[in-house]
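Minutes, project check-in
Item: structure for the 180-residue chain
Input as provided by the requester:
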Amino acid sequence: MHEMVDWLDSRTVLLAANAADRDAKYGEAPPGVIVSSGLTKQVWQKVGTGSSNDDWLDVYSDTGWVTTGFLPAPGWSIGSYMKARRICDSINIRGELVRTGGTIQGQADGNLSPDVPLVTIPSIFAPGSPDRVEGSMRASYTSGAVELGNDAIVMLADIHTNSGIGEGQYLRFTFPFFAN
């Protein structure tokens, strides 16, 4: 009976409320132990021998759709939606902004110089590595490209040749990417 319990012990999914509770309860557990938190939608596997966060592998985590913590840049307001979600290293950011400032006019080649800040996102959704990712955007009468850097600021990089985004017009963007 003792051998069977020892065999099952390393194959049982243990429960914890969050990472701090996991470390407190199972910090000295042997490698291979699986811990799950239904509350925070996370699953970890012990890969090291200590109790630091580096000794745990994030097998699954999900922030759910986050709709707070976004800060529009001057000249913009948040439109009908702004949300982000992280499932493990897969990040998806979607947003709609409305122009409240003057018209942004693209140059003859479509570039904007300098790039125009749009919104600051919660830092947990910043790319990490690589340090910058590109996304697409569509506005009321144009489309183009946006970039997101490790500073967590979404920047408007370019729009169609000789087009613009005026006051009251929308700009929608999306960033689907994998982060480290």
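Outcome recorded: The longest strand covers residues 76-87.
No further action items on this chain.
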